[in-house]
Amino acid sequence: MMTTVSQTKEIFRRAEAVCFDVDSTVIKEEGIDELAKFCGVGDAVTEMTRKAMGGSVTFKTALTERLSIIRCSREQVNKLITDHPPQLTAGIKELVDSLHQRNVKVFLISGGFRCIVEHVATQLNIPLHHVYANRLKFYFNGEYAGFDESQPTAESGGKGKVISMLKEQYGFKTVVMIGDGATDLEACPPASGFIGFGGNVIRPQVKERCSWYVTSFGELLKELEKI
Question: Which of 44, 53, 118, 153 is the least buried, fewest Cβ under 10 Å from its Cβ?
């Protein structure tokens, strides 16, 4: 049963927690693609990201395969963040500030990498314990050693698992998920509502399947101002 636009808006206005996807939602780019470009294997990885988004391979398989091509060192990751810091999407800072002023808890749930997502969280004044993302692993000499496969975000359906966990841990009744991709849409339920975001990239399968689809964070800010 699909909720109507007005129902989704109502859920958003009374949400106790709002969870954002990061790549192509909170930031303009896809972190893994940027990392691949930076490490000189951009084209091969972009194609695999497209497959993962389209749902033709499992998320964990796509992540494993892409990372085995990139094989980034700790130094490369740090240099990427310094030289090409993730670009925030217009309006996200104002929206997060507005949610925080209303005592709404804000979380970042990403299939991307914690080291990059933490950098984003800091810019938005989101506490680091509100960040759920994948952890890259490195050997003592800084070489790539894989990723932490035990994180819920490393699996298909991982975002929903995180939201279920948050509801249990904090006792939230109303949680909204906002994102651009299929993995974000699939997190509702357990999320009470889903808002599709097309400000950076429009994914037709998401746009068609959600009741409230926005292309700018200003639309969400306007809704909050009605409270």
Answer: 44
From residue 205, alpha-carbon distances to 184, 196, 201, 210, 213 in Å are 12, 10, 12, 9, 12
pTM for this structure?
0.90
**Total residues belonging to the chain:** 227
d(CA 103, CA 93): 15
What phi, psi does 49 have (nearest 5°)?
-65, -40
Residues of the chain above pLDDT 90, percent: 55
Where along the chain do its domains lie? 5-29+87-135+146-225, 33-83
Question: Which CATH superfamily does the domain covering 5-29+87-135+146-225 fall into?
Answer: HAD superfamily/HAD-like (3.40.50.1000)
Q: Is the pLDDT of residue 57 over 80?
A: no
3.40.50, 1.10.3470, 1.10.150, 1.10.10: CATH of 33-83: 1.10.150
Q: Is residue 74 within 8 Å of residue 135, measured between CB atoms?
A: no
The residues carrying an active-site annotation are 21, 23
User: Distance (Å, rounded) from C-alpha 123 to C-alpha 108?
Assistant: 12
Q: What is the pLDDT of residue 173?
A: 92
Scanning the chain, the segments in alpha helix (DSSP H) are 5-13, 31-38, 42-54, 59-70, 74-83, 92-101, 114-123, 158-170, 182-185, 204-209, 217-224
